[in-house]
Specification:
15 helices, about 290 residues, about 0% strand, mainly alpha
């Protein structure tokens, strides 16, 4: 309390913070530039899209790019809402199960003793080094052998396991004192009760971060639609918008691509805004001391 009275780590704005704002303001502005450009670019009329030298800010904003996008979508056999539904369904399922599986596996690898535990974590860490391109062929062979082409499982299974999520959550569970879990056993709690009511509330920041990472991977994923799906009605919005501009003429296609980029970008930034405060604040005041 005394520290706050003399201006160290104040709870509200204090003139001593001005120097930090001055230092951080240029970095904040630099980081915001891509976001501002994406938003402005989507509302540019054709004349500004092809202007030279190119303009950063839109001068005459218009909704014509979005109108062209939805107008062209109506001319296809598959409605726009179908791609949106596919992406929403797949994203919700993958994020939910991926976070649950990663949390349970991280709890076992962190707090349980069994043969092969060390090698299990080493294999997960090794998986972090592989880029998606390196495992494309093995994934395709497995999906083909299992007969899951043109099914929603082809979208879900290849991205269900997230090594980075398991690694992140496991490191966070390592901070939980073993005495806390032992106290749960003494009180007669079952293994599932300890995990659900004791572990999960304490690792909310790690879960939120893992969920955000999984969402970004799944929502922007076009690989599964491109490799495993030939039925257009089962493809995702990311694939549809990513290839849509190529189906139109070059001039209109640039405007449609700009509008599509903003549509795909908005859920990512909105989810980040919602979760980032929770992640940072909970990590700082998690109660694990």
């Amino acid at each position: 309390m005394a520290l706050r009275k003399i201006g160290i780590n104040p709870t509200r704005f204090d003139k001593s913070q001005i120097k930090y704002y001055i230092i951080l303001a240029p970095f904040v502005a630099f980081m915001l530039l891509p976001i501002i450009f994406i938003v402005n670019h989507a509302f540019k009329p054709m004349g500004e899209l092809f202007a030279f030298p190119p303009t950063f800010f839109v001068k005459n904003p218009t909704l014509e790019n979005f109108k062209n996008l939805f107008r062209a979508a109506q001319q296809t056999n598959i409605p726009f809402s179908r791609y949106l539904f596919n992406s929403f369904l797949i994203t919700v399922i993958v994020v939910s199960f991926s976070v649950l599986i990663s949390s349970m596996a991280a709890y076992v690898l962190s707090k349980k003793e069994f043969r092969g535990k060390k090698w299990g974590m080493e294999l997960n860490n090794a998986a972090l080094m592989f880029v998606p391109t390196a495992v494309t062929i093995p994934r395709y062979i497995m999906i083909s052998i299992l007969g899951m082409e043109n099914t929603y499982l082809a979208h879900i299974l290849p991205v269900l396991a997230m090594p980075v999520g398991l690694f992140l959550i496991k490191q966070f569970i390592d901070q939980i004192p073993n005495e806390l879990i032992e106290a749960g056993y003494i009180d007669g709690a079952s293994e599932w009760t300890i995990f659900y009511k004791l572990i999960l509330p304490l690792i909310r920041p790690a879960i939120a971060t893992a969920a955000l990472l999984v969402f970004q991977v799944v929502w922007n994923n076009i690989e599964t639609s491109d490799l495993f799906i030939t039925d257009e009605s089962k493809r995702t919005l990311a694939f549809y918008l990513g290839t849509f501009s190529a189906q139109t003429n070059m001039v209109v296609g640039q405007g449609i691509a700009a509008a599509a980029s903003l549509i795909m970008f908005l859920p990512n930034i909105l989810l980040f805004i919602i979760l980032q405060s929770k992640v940072m604040n909970t990590m700082s005041h998690s109660g694990i001391k």
